[in-house]
Amino acid sequence: MASLHDRIEGVLLGTAVGDALGAPYEFGPPRGPELDVVMAGGGPWEPGEWTDDTAMALAIAEVAATGADLRGEPAQDAIVARWCEWSRDAKDVGIQTRAVLREAARGGAITAHRARLAAAARHESVGRSGGNGSLMRAAPVALAYLDDEDALATTARAISELTHFDPDAGDACVLWCSAIRHAVHTGELDVRVGLRHLEPGRREMWLSRIGSAEASTPSAIPGNGWVVAAFQAAWSAITTTQVPPEDPAHGSFRADHFRLAVDAAVRAGNDTDTVAAIAGGLLGAAYGASAVPLQWRRLLHGWPGLTARGVVALASPIARRGKPDTFDYRYRGYEVGALTPHPYDPQVLLGGIGALWRLPHGVDAVVSLCRVGGDAVRTDMPHVEVRLIDRDDPDENPHLDLVLTEAVRVVEELRSQGRTVLLHCVSALSRTPTVAALYGARLQGVSCERALRDVQAALPDAHPNAAFRTALQRLDPGVLVR
Q1: In the chain, what are the domains?
Q2: Rounded to whole angstroms, how far apart are CA atoms 210 and 193?
């Protein structure tokens, strides 16, 4: 079940990350391989800030997280009202969306019924409404109907039609949401699974469009402001990006396909944030939140005042249909725990959850290897949360080698900034010594086995589980080549 939860959390996180990564390059030309793609910010966007793509998706997610059935008028009324509220101060709103929301709100409170009428009227007057603005926000619909694909298809089209009347937009949302649902359940990437929900004639048309995308590079697909081209560019980025071999000793991880394919989506040019947001939602569904690079997660933020943590926190309640989270974030019984300097680097402190609650003097960065409650999250310093489950089961940590490597990299980055880092889990018995051993091995150029022995000398009760020890063995040959 842990892999399933990881993929559920990856849907919204992947959407937001792709959006924020692409934001600085929006309306630019395709980017060649010689140019970087980084979360640098630009224009009105701060580094790591998402745009209207994620903002509109989160409005849907907020309603879905209450357990509301998105097929109902009350839920759709709440969604369009939230969009309208957001749009008043938004840095950017799509032309089609802004026109519909403005007209639907004219002369009274906005409702889903009024929004649909406004969307249809604009389509009639302009002659088209097939922009990518409904596809970019569609991912939460998939999470709301993981157990009912028919309801998913109905809802995806209905939510699309709140602003985009064109059937191409509805079809694209149905296909992409069906693909996200399939990826969450199976880890597989397949945009054809939802074709049965389309009318036969349109089904054949979309089969041709999908085939064309697979035969093209993202940058070769023109006009990705159109929903079909955005769909094709996102799918092309996913399918034409090679999945890396799993070779942890040399820093190659299959789950890095997430990062590489989102990067490829941004390089398509033009509507970069939207194409990358669309691709990121599906890639996140297939690979999970644990595949999202920590360096991107650290910067992520946006309306309505959320960070990566808040985005992840919205996903699970949607899948739970609003039922409360029963996890005990207080970790009762672990209020007092180990705390000791790393044997190779005294500016890295190794500890348990108690050290986070009573932060040692001088610490100005935290790396948490366990789930922490909102009241324990530091906002006055960098606080990075790593998804690492302390169980000896491959399903619990689907990308264990990548996650361990990412955790060490973020410690290294924080230390390069001169920060004193608290590296902790619940009790410093398994997760903390594992990451500390890999960090020490890379720092000193020694074997992971030797580094672990020295860490255990500093933490006498430490005993990493068998899966973590095996991962250290896999990663060990790569210590000297990175």
Answers
A1: 2-319 (1.10.4080.10), 339-478 (3.90.190.10)
A2: 12
